[in-house]
Design brief:
The chain is 72% helix and 2% strand. With 390 residues, the chain is mostly helical. The model has no long low-confidence stretch (mean pLDDT 87).
Length: 390
């Protein structure tokens, strides 16, 4: 077999993007803790762009707010397709990720607040609320057929709702100022996109151009710009009644390779350059460390499954197709991968307190690692047992 054949096989393997992401995380941590660390950080801090239209930002901002908006566009497309014609097309299935995400935000925040109420760390209550959508989906994709497709869709939908919730929390509690004029322009762009959809415009360019303006206005509004990707996705037209491939499906297919093998690896490299410092381990055994770690590792899985159990027992929601409660526990653990969004909230929570920020980042890294390993192993074990029994 030629090298090119191996490469093509790697690109089309469902687990490949997850493997590549983990390699990038390890590589980024190595760079950050080597002599190349300062140079790499300077590269991320280097401003790129133009002062015209206020588009001059550090490279890290272009990655986190720009490239990740494309990632959210892809996930939004997948969610819309599933809502209209897939696993989330009935109310019982569609309601579960929303309910689960709510539980996965409330319980971790309460756990953190229990440990840190009245302390200098109190303002960080939202840190364990977030699920890192990129990393959690990368880990579950590595499980391949060990996990039913419905569970992957459930986690994707949960993470989207979770991230939207985190963005709203940032907008309300951690944003210094919301620019309502830019938000009004965002609403105008969404209206334009909706009209284009209604008029049955099918070429992607008619949506991409207003989508770029939507991103620009969203970024300047003070709200996290990645939400523009989700809003754009929900305006791309699809066709439920025919077998003809829709504009939504065409765009989804075009985005898979660049998102999984370019955008997500760059995102991982840029956001895991955490420098290990003396005293970081001690921070794990403080109220800050307990709040973050227990909030992410235990709070997420408890909140997601408790709220899901209540609503399923009330017959309002139903379990994802071909899944089980033990698999829901494993999925809840993967949702405890807070990582970049949690780090982002930590930076906002403790502005000007570098030492606290570093301790919080390390606690988030450790908690996310524990959640990823335990969730992966549990779901892998359950998948193997299911194959044996079958």
């Amino acid at each position: 077999m030629l090298i090119t054949d191996y490469f093509k096989k790697f690109l089309h393997h469902s687990q490949s993007s997850g493997v590549l992401l983990i390699i990038c995380v390890a590589f980024s941590l190595m760079i950050a803790n080597s002599s190349l660390g300062p140079a790499f950080q300077n590269l991320l801090d280097k401003e790129i762009g133009t002062h015209i239209f206020q588009l001059n930002y550090p490279l890290s901002i272009w990655i986190n707010d720009g490239l990740m908006a494309i990632f959210f566009l892809l996930v939004g497309l997948e969610i819309k397709r599933e809502i209209l014609e897939g696993e989330l097309s009935n109310f019982k299935n569609a309601s579960l990720p929303i309910v689960a995400a709510l539980g996965g935000m409330v319980v971790p925040a309460l756990i953190y607040f229990f440990f840190n109420s009245g302390t200098d760390y109190e303002n960080g209550w939202a840190i364990p609320m977030a699920t890192d959508i990129a990393f959690s989906l990368a880990i579950i994709s590595m499980l391949g057929k060990s996990v039913p497709l419905s569970l992957k869709i459930f986690l994707a939908a949960l993470a989207i709702v979770d991230d939207l919730g985190a963005i709203m929390v940032i907008a309300i509690f951690y944003t210094d100022q919301i620019h309502w004029d830019y938000l009004g322009l965002c609403a105008l762009m969404v209206a334009v996109l909706a009209i284009l959809n209604f008029l049955n415009f099918k070429k992607h360019i008619f949506y991409i151009i207003p989508g770029i303006f939507l991103w620009y206005f969203m970024h300047h509004s003070g709200i996290h710009a990645t939400i523009a990707g989700v809003l754009l996705a929900f305006t791309i037209p699809t066709n439920i009644s025919t077998t003809e491939i829709s504009p939504l499906e065409k765009l989804e297919q075009k985005l898979h390779l660049p998102v999984n093998f370019l955008i997500m690896p760059i995102f991982a490299l840029a956001n895991t350059n955490i420098t290990f410092k003396e005293g970081m381990v001690d921070g794990l055994f403080s109220s800050l460390g307990y709040g973050i770690m227990l909030g992410l590792v235990l709070g997420k899985v408890i909140g997601i499954n408790l709220f899901s159990f209540i609503f399923i027992k009330l017959k309002i929601s139903s379990l994802p197709d071909k899944s089980s409660w033990p698999q829901m526990l494993g999925t809840g653990l993967l949702a405890g991968i807070g990582f970049t969004m949690s780090i982002f909230i930590a930076l906002l929570s403790f502005k000007g307190h570098t030492e606290i920020q570093e301790e919080a980042k390390f606690a988030i890294l450790v908690a996310s690692f524990i959640s990823a390993i335990t969730g992966f192993l549990l779901l892998k074990y359950l998948g193997k047992n299911k194959k044996i029994s079958a």
